[in-house]
Amino acid sequence: MCQPFGDDFCRRAICRMKEQDHLYKGLKKYFGFDTFKGNQEAIMQSILSGKDTFVLMPTGGGKSLCYQLPALLSEGTAIIISPLIALMKNQVDAMRNYSEEDGIAHFLNSSLGKQEIEEVKKDVVSAKTKMLYVAPESLTKQENIEFLRNIKISFYAVDEAHCISEWGHDFRPEYRRIRPIISEICPRPIIALTATATPKVQHDIQKNLGMNEAVLYKSSFNRPNLHYEVKNKTDQIDREIIKFILSQGRKSGIVYCLSRKKVDDFAEILQANNIRALPYHAGMDAANRSNNQDAFLMEKADVIVATIAFGMGIDKPDVRYVIHYDIPKSLEGYYQETGRAGRDGGEGRCIAFYSRKDLQKLERFMQGKPVSEQEIGKQLLLETAAYAETSVCRRKVLLHYFGEDYHEPNCAHCDNCLNPKKKVEAKELLITLLEAIIALKEKQKADYLVDFLVGKESSDIETYGHNELEEFGSGADEEASTWEALIRQALLDNYLRKDIENYGILKITKKGKEFLKSPVSFKVTKDDEDEDDMSDLESDDSDVIASAGSGGAADPVLFSMMKDLRKKISKKLNVPPYVIFQPSSLEAMATSYPITLDELQNIPGVGAGKAKRYGKEFVELIKKHVEENDITRPEDLRVKTVANKSKLKVSIVQAIDRKVALDDLAESKGIDFNEMLSEVEAIVYSGTKINIDYFLNEVMDQDVIQDIYSYFKETETDDLEKAQEELSDYTDTEIRMVRIKFFSDMAN
After folding, report:
1. CA distance 72 to 671
2. Residue 607 contacts residue 687 (beta carbons within 8 Å)
């Protein structure tokens, strides 16, 4: 016979039922919902019962509600610490819509004036305010600390908690001070929330906030409604993005760019192509930024172009696509930004454009930072590169990064699963890889291991004497890229793991050790061979856009005809063919079919001068080809560019007209001499005629100038590397300066 429950158990059970009833009534009253999503109810009960609570929940999972409803139901004011001013405003506006009182939610940050701050404090003191959003910088101000010490605080919510960790994608040093300030104000329960945290970042957050005993609620990071795609970044990127956006009609989308300037420029280009787009970045004044955010939320704009580093903080449920013009600095950043798509469970396209140059640029940005910070940044970039370059399911790679396994053989919602690569047996290669790791005593990172396998004698390998080991060069029969792909697959299949505490050193797992004792089949996806060969380009549709990374023209027939025309003109004018138009310019023409001189000026490497000098015959040829082959040129597929507003280029041309020495000019502009030459090269390659004879005659002998000039006149290419091989007696700088003179004389 069952024993009756004790009185204490019954009291707790009744208490839980009342609490549960209280939550559901509050959910219905304030938000109009009847049921909770996922772990929401358990999370709320945890914080309401006074427990520290850690919430790992992907974007769109309903994190905000986890602290908003408990705040409304608790006595006192909840302090919500958030790094994004835009998100604060967005959430305060939303909360006011749920209540009859505007004072129910406020924010306290640098965007407020003195009088506004006083009004906020008045509402808080009078107990009207249930939620006070505070920027971490504002929390550290002594006047705010004193104010908060005198009010009743229900709990603290630390939103975007990944900002605490140096391994997080948006590290903020001021977040490290949250715990001591909370202790100074008034210790209360803490709920920390983030949409992106690897196990390492999760540990950092809990340790720093002093909540190692916190109740952890971790939701799956899988967003099944999102489609992931990575494209190689080419000079046709603007056209590709515009074509895609126009195909989406009036759907909402976000385009992320690396720099503020690119945000402004690309927003203008989209506007010029009849797309309702607005820019959004930290360099804009607060009023404009707020107006643009509201226009996007109110559907007066379809596209927001934003910086990656700033982060948007816009809670819009029906964003249908997120495009990364530049690859982000980390997979966490990428995951969070793509997570802004399809928050309502509807479709969400996530397209990232990737080039190794972008990663190199990001790596250069880290120079000058502490070595440990550079090492962390480099590891995060390597993870991003691995994701971009992988041939396996992108969902599997993303989830693995966040410590979650994905067992489906095909997600059917990423480019790699929709176009699967051939799989090949790689059992012997995995054995070689694991033996090399053992030989190196499991103390090296992936890039070092690849060099060791292919037999590359780097200074580090020689210093450690690893080139003397039997396993050195044991994988020389394979390309470095093969070993990189193999390491990625071995990590995904749990044969290897990365020791994140030691900047990504590779360790063999238990499964890997068992494999060495008793090898089994291990298959890896085989990447396609180099696709850059023009002869491999075939298309049944003459109006198809060049595929990303193809390196060839979309219309090989037209490309061939234009090459013949270029050759004919070059013979007539006695100049090398490349002087007339670069091969890349011809490829772009064979892709976008310019049939007027104005359209021709939009082609990379073709300015007004060059279009006027050489363009007539080319646009006539293209126009005839378009008409004869009935090629459709829809208005919405032609990228309209905005006027070039580069003050730097204009000032350089003006300075050269005044015969200012190029080295003095570089110094006055705050750039090095090589950067100055790159700017001048871009000017002459676009068709502007300039004269730098005054500077050449001052710094170079006349016979040297003549010798280099003659080389370019006789060769079939302006390729700098080939010129350096042929003209080995001269410096790179000398060759580049004379090449500028030659191009300006002959082409413009």
Report:
1. 55
2. yes
Q: Which domain holds residue 447?
A: 423-525
CATH number of the domain bearing residue 133? 3.40.50.300
Q: Are 281 and 254 in contact (CB under 8 A)?
A: no
**pTM, full prediction:** 0.58
Domain presence at residue 603: yes
CB 74 within 8 A of CB 235: no
Residues 326 and 367 occupy one common structural domain: yes
Of 218, 247, 271, the position where a domain reaches its end is 218
Tell me, yes or no, whether 3 lies in a domain.
Answer: no
- Decide if 257 contacts 308 (C-beta within 8 A): yes
pLDDT at 643 over 70: no
Structure tokens at 282: 């930290």
How does residue 157 score in pLDDT terms, banded at 50, 70 and 90?
A: very high
Find the DSSP H helices in 493-645: 510-517, 556-573, 577-580, 583-592, 597-600, 608-628
On whether both 557 and 615 belong to a single domain, the answer is: yes
Positive/negative CA dihedral, 537, 541, 546, 552: positive
Give how far the C-alpha of residue 313 lies from the chain's centroid of Cα atoms, to the nearest Å.
16
Q: State residue 80 phi and psi, 5-degree precision.
A: -105, 115
More confident residue, 249 or 98: 249
More confident: 633 or 82: 82
Of 218, 240, 261, the last residue of a domain is 218
Number of structural domains (the chain) is: 5
Are 566 and 547 found together in one domain? yes
Q: Regarding beta strands 505-508 and 215-218, do their DSSP bridges make them parallel or antiparallel, or are they unpaired?
A: unpaired
Q: Quickly count: other Cβ atoms within 10 Å of residue 42's Cβ.
A: 13
- Angle of CA points 64, 132, 94, to nearest 5°: 50
Nearest to residue 464, comparing CAs of 446, 449, 474, 477?
449
- Taking Cα atoms as reference points, which of 368, 255, 370 lies closest to residue 319? 255
Integer Cα distance of 116 and 349 in angstroms: 40
Residue with tokens 């749990």: 494
CB atoms within 10 A of CB 715: 14
User: Which whole-number Å values give the CA distances from 146 to 105, 139, 243, 667, in the listed order?
Assistant: 20, 10, 55, 50
Whether 53 contacts 189, CB under 8 Å: yes
Would you say residue 337 lies in a domain? yes
Q: Which token pair is 383?
A: 């993870």
Residue 563 belongs to domain with CATH number: 1.10.150.80
Distance CA 579, CA 566 (A): 9
Question: Based on the domain organization, do 80 and 202 belong to the same domain?
Answer: yes
Residue given tokens 């976008």 in the structure block: 592
Which among 202, 242, 241, 193 has a CA at the least distance from the CA of 91? Answer: 193
The β-bridge relationship of strands 523-525 and 423-425 is antiparallel
Element (H, E) at 316: none
Q: 438 and 470: one domain?
A: yes
Pairing between strand 505-508 and 496-499? antiparallel
Which of 418, 66, 414 has its CA nearest to residue 224? Answer: 414
Residues 6+ away with beta carbon under 8 Å from 516: 431, 434, 435, 508
User: Distance between CA 571 and CA 707 in Å, rounded?
Assistant: 22
CA angle 219, 222, 224 (to 5 degrees): 130
Do both 481 and 630 map to the same domain?
no
What pLDDT score does 543 carry?
A: 30
CATH number for the domain spanning 457: value is 1.10.10.10
Instruction: Tell me: do 46 and 189 sit in the same domain.
Output: yes
Instruction: Report the CATH number at residue 709.
Output: 1.10.10.1390
Pair (213, 246) in one structural domain: no
Identify residue 571 by its one-letter amino acid code. K
> Residue 457 corresponds to which amino acid?
E
- pLDDT bin (cut points 50, 70, 90) of residue 301 is very high
Residue 2 lies in a domain: no
